[in-house]
Amino acid sequence: MTSSSPAVPQAAASDRGSPPHRVAVLIRPGFIPFELGIPHRIFGTARDAALRPLYEVVTCTPGGPGLVPSDSDVAVHVAHGPEAVEDADTVVVPASHEYGPVYEEGRLTPELAEAFRRIRPGARIVSICTGAFALAAAGLLDGRPATTHWATTDHFRRLFPRVHLHPEVLFTDDGDVLTSAGVASGIDLCLHLVRRDHGAAIAQDVARRTVVPPHREGGQAQYVERYVPERDGPGTAATRAWAAERLAEPLTLVAMARHAAMSVRTFTRRFRDETGESPGTWLTRQRVEHARTLLESTDLPMDQIAQKCGFGTAQSLRAHVQSALGVTPTAYRRTFHRVA
């Protein structure tokens, strides 16, 4: 399970005459060196069949060219100012540990606001970790799904109540705006973008060269939720983890509310407050995500996948996958099935 709002584009080979996709990594003082390295490594490793680079990655900073300190004892000399985002196809905003008004008040600094203003219409905007605070402060996440580091979710919700926050996922994909959870989940998101742009084979090659899995297996929602503080509290996180481990079962709203020791009405209200979704919508999304994993990583027939995901029949599986992803399960498997 990787995305709360998955987008599945058609895999495509590199066009011999097309220039590389330009990625601008917008860093601020207090940036995390590891997060700066993620887009450079993942996008910078992607090559077409003729070994031509598929991406051009540049680093820029809102304050203009110069030395930018990190959150450790190193600094980097950045050659580009905010003008670099103007011709970028994708802008990546990593986290910064010099929190300031973005994190503390949900307000952009004048320099950062100017940098966001320069991003051209139609460009793809991506955050890593608490970089989502900057996207939210710019108004880019209002009414959209998003995620961020699990430890900051309560604070994020207080600052940005209009954002549909999903702390249980590793990343969200809402088409032109994407967010990732804490730190290393930026790798998952950047690999997802390579797969989205150029198909599974190139993404797998990048993953092999980077020595990371091309797609994290198993219950990614449960993996993240183990660390959400409210799991042992009065919220619905523990029930979400419980349900995600029982997708093949006929889970009902009554059963989920009973597990949470709440009335159906209270459970439904709290569930929506915490996830931005109804329990039914959330459960269907988990089942579709599990189906994606099985379609990509197994040769199981469709009726068995349907049973394992709780859809019951192959016809039901087809209807839900087509509705969520825009393609049939067969077409999805044809594009993204991974060869062992």
Helix content: 40-55%
| Top-tier CATH class of the largest domain | Alpha Beta
| Tally of individual helices | 15
The count of domains is 2
Instruction: Please tell me how large the radius of gyration is.
Output: 20 Å
Could you name the CATH topology of the largest domain?
Answer: Rossmann fold
Structural class assignment: alpha/beta
The CATH superfamily of the largest domain is known as Class I glutamine amidotransferase (GATase) domain
Mean pLDDT: 87
Biased composition (Low complexity): 1-14
Keywords: DNA-binding, Transcription, Transcription regulation
Pfam families: DJ-1_PfpI, HTH_18
Organism: Promicromonospora iranensis
Task: Characterize the structure shown.
It is a single chain. This protein has two domains: 21-210, Rossmann fold; 234-340, Homeodomain-like (Arc Repressor Mutant, subunit A, Orthogonal Bundle), CATH 1.10.10. It contains 15 helices and ten strands. It has helices spanning 33-45, 100-105, 110-118, 132-137, 153-159, 185-198, 200-210, 220-225, 237-244, 253-259, 264-275, 279-297, 302-309, 314-325, 329-336; strands at residues 21-26, 55-60, 66-69, 75-78, 90-93, 124-127, 145-146, 164-165, 171-173, 177-180. Strands 2-1-5-6-10-9 form a six-stranded mixed beta sheet. A two-stranded antiparallel sheet has the order 3-4. Strands 7-8 form a two-stranded parallel sheet. β3 (66-69) and β4 form a beta hairpin. α12 (279-297) packs antiparallel against α13. The model is unreliable at 1-15 and 217-233 (pLDDT under 50). It comes from Promicromonospora iranensis. This is Transcriptional regulator GlxA family with amidase domain. InterPro entries: Class_I_gatase-like, DJ-1/PfpI, Homeodomain-like_sf, HTH_AraC, HTH_AraC-typ_CS, INH-QAR. Keywords: DNA-binding, Transcription, Transcription regulation.
